[in-house]
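User: Fold this; tokens only.

Assistant: Input:
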Amino acid sequence: MQPAYNARAQKKATNLSINEDLLARARELNINLSATLEQALDEALRKKLREQWLSENKAAMEAYNAHVEQHGVFSDGLRSF
């Protein structure tokens, strides 16, 4: 599977607004904010890319499924299970 982004790209400083209580509690527990944000963004990016791919390929998948339903698959006569 192709990566969703270049994990070796340089880090870039940015400003974020975060709920102050959430930030304080995360700092109390020594949660690495940068790593946590990167992980959450990676998951969100993968989810959106998957949704986009499914949307873009929906017609083709439906056409293939209809073809298989009507004609079967090429290996139907070859399978022993």
